[in-house]
Specification:
about 140 residues, alpha/beta, six-stranded mixed beta sheet, 4 helices, about 25% strand
Length: about 140
């Protein structure tokens, strides 16, 4: 990545809800943003388009649900389809990130903080983006990753 700060939006895809978080490349941190409903397994594209228009990200990250052994599960194909559709709609690069155990970790963080009001989905998206940053750091050989 270049020295320029890049903004990324991460998505924790689900068939009823999609958690969304925002992050940036300088500090490699992410913040939970909101949950967007999916109706009949179809995302609320108007809400997603509004978020992309508002935040003007440089790239998007979609959590890829995998079994613990790394194989696809039923929802994996739908998450890939969602990522492809995001790319087609936004024209932005879309990266897939392993999201194994992100929802469990999100619940742990929410319980520890005492704040469960917004549910785990945006926090899961935050965890997905943090994991994506950490993986980039490892692959680029950066310290602290």
């Amino acid at each position: 990545m270049t020295d320029r700060t890049k903004t990324l939006i991460a998505f924790d895809f689900g068939e009823k809800r999609i958690g969304i978080a925002i992050g940036q490349t300088v500090t490699r941190t992410a913040t939970p943003l909101e949950t967007v409903p999916a109706r009949g397994t179809k995302p609320d594209w108007n809400a997603i388009d509004r978020l992309i228009d508002t935040w003007k990200p440089d790239a998007l990250v979609v959590g890829l649900p995998l079994n613990m052994d790394g194989t696809d599960q039923g929802i994996t194909v739908r998450a890939r389809r969602f990522a492809n559709r995001l790319h087609a709609r936004s024209g932005l690069p879309v990266h897939l990130a392993d999201e194994r155990l992100s929802t469990r970790e999100a619940w742990t963080r929410l319980i520890e903080s005492g704040s469960r009001r917004d549910g785990p989905d945006p926090v899961a998206a935050q965890i997905i983006l943090e994991g994506w940053f950490a993986e980039r750091d490892r692959s680029e050989g950066l310290a602290g990753g």
